[in-house]
Amino acid sequence: MGNFSMKDILVSILDECSRKYSPQFADIRVFKRVGSSIVIENGRAFRMYEYRLHGGCVRVLIDGAWGFSAINDTSKEGLRRAMETAAKMAIAASKRVTEKRGVAEIRGIEDSVVFPVKIKPEDIPIDQKVKELLEVEKVARKYHPNIVNTILSYGDRHEIEIVANTLGTYTEQDIPRTGIGLLVVTREAGVVQRTHEDTRGIKGYEVLKEFLDEEKHIRAATTAVDLLKARPPPAGKFKAILSPEVTGLIVHEAFGHNREADAVIAGESILEGKVGEKVASELVTMVDDSTIPGAYGSFKYDSEGTPGRKRVIVEKGILRGFLHSLETAKKLEARPTGSARADTHHNIPIVRMSNTYIDAGNWTFEEMLEDIDHGIYFKKSQWGYVFPEKGQFTCNVIVSYMIRKGEVAEMLRDVSFGGLTLETLKMVDAVGRDLVIPMAGMCGKGGQGAPVCCGGPHIRVKEVVVGGRA
User: Strand pairing of 374-387 and 448-456?
Assistant: First the structure.
């Protein structure tokens, strides 16, 4: 995939497309991904493989209609055929389209960026990776006799994405991402508990050392054992403190997808028509930032070649805008935000989050606790479920604690809380100064996955509804 020769190929194909079909817009993406995956379960290598994926795709916009073609080939002839197919699809679709599409025009950019790592995963033989991961899993598995299952998952992926379009953009982006995660399951007297810890980022094989240095394998084992003695939660309405991890879950799941402009256009967002209005407490400023060094969801350019940036979505409780692709920005007369991401060359770019968080405030954790006589501290999240168009959410929290007379008290397990998204955000009455973005993983949407992060500081909410024992 030579840099100069590939640029010449893509520019020549776009020039041919322009001469022959006079499109409103056209772009070509060339994509390559190589990686490995290893799963260790209960002392044995349960699954391990290496993989390679490469190809290209072309989008063409003619008379308000899109055509798209993907091919597992990066030769000039292969990409040229894809261009012809996409153009003919657009022409055919333009005869039946009921709503004309368009893209926002931005200044073309030429750039090449490589994200460096300390240890390239491809330089480590897979048998060495397996040996080292087996040792980590063994330490966790042998930690306590009540541990009945341990699953250690490791994955690395090295991606190169090249984007060229008729606006004059040509970008090359080389991003390595690596992650390791451990699930620990415990059982005692019919009670089964589980917890997990992970480390992910735009990093190399050094994530293993980071995972061990922070003793996350020991932390997962200890927490899973402690949860066996934890109480089930009480039911009712409580004043609550959310950890950075649980704050991130709310920000991403409950609020995040609502601010993606394609959801707004489709009528599937509770934020439609609310730009400039209050949607949260004045203490809440919410950001999506794809420029954070090393964060799992970071990138310099999206899959349309638009620069990523720090995007303030909610400022002191006021909704300032949405995340946009070139197309949604045109539709809503907004500035593109560099938020169009595609999983591989087989997918079209769609609006996605990157690293999403509530910005830091001025409170300490101790100050938040002081005036809570009877409440709950939600510490470690597990999953969330949301109805974006209804504005409802539910969060499941693995580890929580009762708060009694301003102090953290006994541990709780299997806590679920929920409510109305905007109502909950408006009830935030304290935001901590301890901003971290601890949650990293893959976000699914439209059949595509995208690396993301989410987090924030500790926040306090006046009232949440908790399901449990009355």
Answer: unpaired
Residue 119 Cα distances to 205, 300, 453, angstroms: 5, 21, 22
CB-neighbour burial class of residue 370 (10 A; exposed 0-12, middle 13-18, buried 19+)? exposed
Task: Write the pLDDT tens digit of every residue in 257-276.
Answer: 999 999 999 999 999 999 99
Contact 325, 424 (CB under 8 A): no
Q: pLDDT exceeding 70 applies to what percent of the chain?
A: 98
CA end-to-end span of the chain, whole Å?
Answer: 63
Q: What is the DSSP letter of 255?
A: I
Give the relative orientation of helices 76-94 and 3-21 as an angle to the nearest 10 degrees. Answer: 30
Cα angle 270, 276, 281 (rounded to 5 degrees) comes to: 75
Q: How large is the average pLDDT for residues 309-317?
A: 97
Residue type, 460: R
Give the residue extent of every domain in the chain.
3-227, 236-467
Q: What does the alpha-carbon distance between residue 263 and residue 276 come to, in Å, rounded to a whole number? A: 18
Task: Give the CATH architecture of domain 3-227.
Answer: 2-Layer Sandwich (3.30)
Kindly report, residue by residue over 336-359, the tens digit of the pLDDT. Answer: 999 999 999 999 999 999 999 999
Is residue 93 within 8 A of residue 66, CB to CB? The reply is: yes
For residue 469, the model assigns a pLDDT of: 56
What are the pLDDT digits (tens) for 353-382?
Answer: 999 999 999 999 999 999 999 999 999 987
How far apart, in Å, are the Cα atoms of 42 and each of 126, 139, 184?
19, 11, 10
The Cα 37–Cα 46 span in angstroms is 11
Task: Report in angstroms the alpha-carbon separations of 163 from 26, 43, 174, 350.
Answer: 11, 43, 12, 15
> Do 184 and 140 contact (CB within 8 A), yes or no?
yes
Is 323 within 8 Å of 452 (Cβ atoms)?
A: no
* Residue 190: both structure tokens together: 């019919």
Per-residue confidence (pLDDT) for residue 468, from 0 to 100: 60
